[in-house]
Amino acid sequence: MRQHRAPLVAALAAHLARAPGRLHMPAHKGGRWVDDEFGRLFHEHAWELDLTELPGLDDLHWPTGPLREAQDLAREAFGAEETLFLVNGSTSGLLALILATCGPGDTLVLARNCHRAAFAGLVLSGASPAWIRVEVDVRLGIAVGVTPEALATVLEAHPEARAALVVSPTYQGFASDLTSLATVCHARGVPLLVDEAHGPHFSFHPALPLPALRAGADACVQSLHKAGGSLTGTALLHLQGKLLDRDRVRLMASLVQTTSPSFPLLASLDAARRRLATCGREDLDRTLALATITRRRLCELGYHCPGEEYTFPGVAGVDLTRLLVHVGDRGVTGYRAERHLRASGVQVEYSDPVNFLALASPGDDPAWLQSLLHGLCTLPPGTARPIDLGSLWTLPHVALSPAEAVRLPRKRIPLRRAPGQVAAELVCPYPPGVPVLVPGEVIPAELPSALEALAAVGGRFQGRDPVKEGLDVLALPPGA
Ligand SMILES: Cc1ncc(COP(=O)(O)O)c(C=O)c1O
What we know:
Elements: H1 7-18, E1 21-23, H2 36-45, H3 66-78, E2 82-86, H4 89-101, E3 107-111, H5 116-125, E4 128-132, E5 135-137, E6 142-145, H6 148-157, E7 163-167, E8 174-175, H7 178-186, E9 192-195, H8 212-215, E10 219-222, H9 224-227, E11 235-239, H10 246-255, H11 263-300, E12 317-318, E13 322-326, H12 334-343, E14 346-348, E15 350-351, E16 355-359, H13 366-377, H14 402-405, E17 410-413, H15 447-456, H16 466-469, E18 471-474
Parallel strand pairs: 1-14, 3-4, 3-7, 7-9, 9-10
Antiparallel strand pairs: 2-11, 5-6, 8-12, 10-11, 13-16, 15-16, 17-18
Helix pairs in contact: 2-11, 3-11, 4-5, 4-10, 6-7, 11-13
The structure holds pyridoxal-5'-phosphate.
């Protein structure tokens, strides 16, 4: 009987049975890095804790009791002036910030390597993007940051900009010079918003890059689940300074979140904050030591694994808990390395045409990092040639705002015929979830061959595969 099946439940059970080493998110690593009290409660009473806004608990949308105090403690621990708890990830924090700063027709300056959540903010707000050029490390094939000069150029060209949004650190752990970016923004009275989804732990160890708030950002969002120890889907939105209308940010954060927030999720934010604030330094000392030994061994094995020596324009620091391992030099794709490691009993976070990324956290069993090293010792060299995906980062001409483009009639055409047409859909290689084409943009001539090259080595897309199935473009030219 078909209805006796529960495929997702079965898939989770099968994954647990395989029990691969967890060199991926969430950072609590299966409850191994957790606040003692919450760890015990959650372990023993997961079902009973699933509660709603009962007396004595609180209301996410108007906190006056324990949630308000928990947010206040987080504000203190992270050095913010105000902190909001989020149960729909950094995604909801980014939406709140974009909706609070931009309305229809407004300009948002943003880095081209922003996550797809920023694109959602553009569609919902009706704002137009003014893109900041990103610095691309061609060997690694990834965007690593933005320079203050690139930001200044866009702000000069767009004095009407309502806000500037950058990602720092990147998914792979590269942090930009946020102090200089904040100075550039503030000289023009523009708030700097930082997608710090991958950097919630930075406040708790001096060897990690400077946190956005300390660098002078007006707001940042942090996925505490990714690197801070809370449950998946939870995040923090921090605010400071006078450039943002805080009432409006609070309103937008409330509008984009469920009215039935999970209390275990909210409590996991409180618990992760306590753990970070009271033991974060020692916890991260251990993690950094383990990651450093592993990085050294990787280098001895001949792998390029950027660490503190890494310098590149737009990069001011590296999160040393992230092990980005370049395998392209061995003629192997990151995808193949990831599969090989999975077969060796360890699951990494992400892979791309030439790299994979392993995440270390205080929850790690050192045996997982040993498995990673052993797995790499048996990875056979291949014959894959590095592909140049630099053209994916070319800044296209914006013909229409994303909000306008997604509402106009569209037609599907083969990818090869798309250059010169206006995109009606998002093209987003996944992971890492950074769009390379946004609705409303004129499709550049180089895009088809770059996407074909990506797909040929095993790259996947979130959504329809444009290489196999074509691309949606506007049925009529803009203004027709
Ligand atoms: C850079 C970046 N920003 C934002 C997000 C969205 O975060 P969340 O999954 O917490 O909604 C992600 C998710 O991967 C991300 O990589």
